[in-house]
Design a protein that fits this description.
alpha+beta; UDP-n-acetylglucosamine1-carboxyvinyl-transferase, Chain; 2 domains; 4-stranded mixed beta sheet; 15 helices; 23 strands; 30% helix; disordered N terminus; binds uridine-diphosphate-N-acetylglucosamine
C-alpha cells in the first residue's frame, strides 16, 4: 500500500521555514460574495481518529478526511510506526497490523503537536511508547501534564528525561488498569489521550471534568464502532468499560466547525449572503449566537446555514472550552469586530499568547487596544491592504478575512500555517467571488513582515 501526500515541507507548529516563507496570498478586497461554500471534514477530529486507528489490528476506513498538511504529518507518523496507509480523495485506509515501532521521531513530533495522541494507543496496544515532549508553540506553553497524569493513573510508568517521554505498562500482560481520573482543566487532548488508552484497559475508567468538544464525541463514536464501551462523551463525565480487543470500522469525520465558523464570518465581514454546508448547528451554537447578536440573520436548511448579514455592530466575546465560544475562532471574529459599528471587547481565556493578530490587524487600519489577553476594538469604516503575517493557523485565517474587505491589495504571509487547517481556502473563497491568488516570490524582493511587528 502507499499513500500520496501533499508537499509537507512545512513547520506546522511554529517557525516559518525559509522555503515556505516565500509563499503568500495576494488578496484584493472589496468584493461582495455570494453562493455556497462546502465545509471539509474536521482537522482536529481526523488527526485523533488516525491515531486511534492504532488501537486495532484490523483495517480502518476514515472518510471525509480533509486534505491538509497536518493530516500528512500524522500519516508520516503512522508510517514511521510501521502502519500502512492509502489515500483516495478524502478517504484514508489504515492498516495498523504492521505496528511495531513504539518511538516517534523528534522532527515529526516537533512539526505536529497532535502526534502526541499516539501515546495512548501505543501504551494500550503494545505496552510501551517513547515520544518527545511536543513543547510549546506561538499561542502558548501548551503543557501535557494532564495527559501524563491520566496515563499514570491508568498504571503506566512514565519517565520524562531530556525532553523524551518514556512510558511503559508494567506486568506480564502489559494491561492498563481502569481508574478514576479528575482533570484539572478540561483539556481536549488529555481527554482524548485517556479515552483512547482506557478502551483496552482492564476494568472501568471515568474521566471527570472531561472536555466536551464535538471532536471528543466524534472520537468516542468511532471507538464505539470499533467495539469500545464508552458512555457520556460530550458531557463532563465519561465512562469507559475496558474491552479485550477493538475491531476495524468505517467512520465519517464530522464537518469542521472552525472552518464553517470562518466562512460564516467571511459572509458577515463582507456583508454578503453565503450558504455554508455541511454543518452541525449545535457545534456552532456559541458562534451563531454572537453572529446573531451583532446583527446577522441565520437560517438553517437541511444540512447548511444561510447567513444574511445586517449592519454589523460590536459585541463582546470571551473564549471558553466547548460549549463556549471557541478560542480557534477568536482571531477571525476579531477581524469582523474591527469592521463593526461601535466598540467590542474580546477576551482570550484558553491560551496565554493568542493575540498576535492584533498587531497585524492594526497594520490594516484596525483600532485595537490590547491589555494582556483582552482586546478592546473600536470598529473602523475601512480597513486597508497591507503586508501582514499570520503567526499561527487561526490568525492567518483572520488576515485572509480582513483582506476580503480591505481597500486595495493585502499580502498575507504565514501560509504554511493556513495550509495546516484550511483546505484550499483561496479556491473556496474565490468560488463565491473573492479575488485571492497564491504567490511564491523571493524574500529578497518582498517586504517580509515579522510576527507581532507593531503598526506604526
Ligand atoms: C485542541 C485543538 C486546538 C484548540 C484547543 C482548545 C486539536 C488537535 N487541537 O488542542 O485547535 O485550540 O483544543 O479548544 O484538537 N493545558 C494544560 N495542561 C495540559 C493540557 C492542556 O494546562 O496537560 C492547557 C493548555 O495549555 C491550554 C488549555 O489547557 O491553555 C487548552 O488546551 P487543550 O484543550 O489541551 O488543547 P489541545 O488539545 O492542545
Amino acid at each position: 500500500m502507499s499513500i500520496f501526500l501533499l508537499s509537507s515541507n512545512v513547520d506546522s507548529v511554529g517557525e516559518v521555514s525559509k522555503q515556505n516563507s516565500a509563499l503568500h496570498l495576494e488578496s484584493r478586497g472589496g468584493y461582495s460574495l455570494s453562493g455556497d461554500i462546502k465545509v471539509s471534514g474536521a482537522k482536529n477530529s481526523a488527526l485523533v481518529l488516525m491515531a486511534a486507528s492504532l488501537l486495532t489490528e484490523e483495517e480502518m476506513l476514515i472518510k471525509n478526511v480533509p486534505n491538509l498538511t497536518d493530516i500528512n504529518g500524522m500519516a508520516e507518523i503512522l508510517i514511521s510506526l510501521g502502519v500502512q496507509l492509502k489515500r483516495s480523495s478524502s478517504e484514508i485506509y489504515i492498516s495498523p497490523q504492521g505496528l511495531h515501532h513504539v518511538e516517534l521521531p523528534y522532527d515529526l513530533v516537533h512539526r505536529l503537536r497532535a502526534s502526541f495522541f499516539c501515546i495512548g494507543p501505543l501504551l494500550a496496544r503494545l505496552g510501551k511508547a517513547k515520544i518527545p515532549l511536543p513543547g510549546g508553540c506561538r499561542i502558548g506553553a501548551r503543557p501535557v501534564e494532564e495527559h501524563i497524569k491520566g496515563l499514570k493513573a491508568l498504571g503506566a510508568q512514565i519517565n520524562i528525561s531530556n525532553g523524551l517521554v518514556t512510558a511503559e505498562v508494567p506486568g506480564l500482560n502489559k494491561k492498563l488498569q481502569g481508574t478514576n481520573v479528575i482533570l484539572d482543566c478540561p483539556s481536549v487532548g488529555a481527554t482524548e489521550t485517556i479515552l483512547m488508552a482506557a478502551t483496552l484497559a482492564e476494568g472501568t475508567t471515568t474521566i471527570n471534568n472531561a472536555a466536551q468538544e464535538p471532536e471528543v464525541q466524534d472520537l468516542a463514536k468511532m471507538l464505539n464502532s470499533m467495539g469500545a464501551l464508552i458512555e457520556g462523551a460530550g458531557q463532563s463525565t465519561i465512562t469507559i468499560k475496558g474491552v479485550k480487543k477493538l475491531y476495524g470500522c468505517n467512520h465519517t469525520v464530522i464537518p469542521d466547525r472552525i472552518e464553517a465558523g470562518t466562512f460564516l464570518i467571511a459572509a458577515a465581514i463582507t456583508r454578503s449572503n453565503l450558504r455554508i454546508s455541511p454543518v452541525i448547528p449545535e457545534h456552532l451554537k456559541a458562534v451563531l449566537e454572537k453572529l446573531s447578536d451583532c446583527g446577522c440573520s441565520i437560517k438553517f436548511d437541511q444540512d447548511g446555514i444561510n447567513l444574511i448579514p445586517g449592519s454589523i455592530k460590536g459585541v463582546d466575546i470571551s473564549t471558553e472550552p466547548f460549549p463556549g465560544f471557541p478560542t480557534d475562532l477568536q482571531a477571525p471574529f476579531m477581524a469582523l469586530m474591527a469592521t463593526a459599528q461601535g466598540k467590542s471587547k474580546i477576551k482570550e481565556n484558553v491560551y496565554e499568547n493568542r493575540m498576535q493578530h492584533v498587531y497585524e490587524l492594526k497594520k490594516m487600519g484596525a483600532s485595537i487596544h490590547l491589555e494582556g489577553s483582552t482586546a478592546e476594538i473600536e470598529g473602523v469604516h475601512e480597513l486597508k491592504g497591507a503586508a501582514v503575517i499570520g503567526g499561527d493557523l487561526r490568525s492567518s485565517a483572520a488576515m485572509v478575512l480582513a483582506s476580503l474587505v480591505a481597500k486595495g491589495m493585502t499580502k498575507v504571509w504565514g501560509i504554511n500555517h493556513l495550509d495546516r487547517g484550511y483546505e484550499s481556502i483561496e479556491h473556496k473563497l474565490n468560488s463565491v467571488g473573492a479575488d485571492i491568488v497564491r504567490k511564491e516570490k523571493s524574500l529578497e524582493v518582498e517586504h517580509f513582515p515579522i510576527v507581532g511587528e507593531r503598526a506604526a
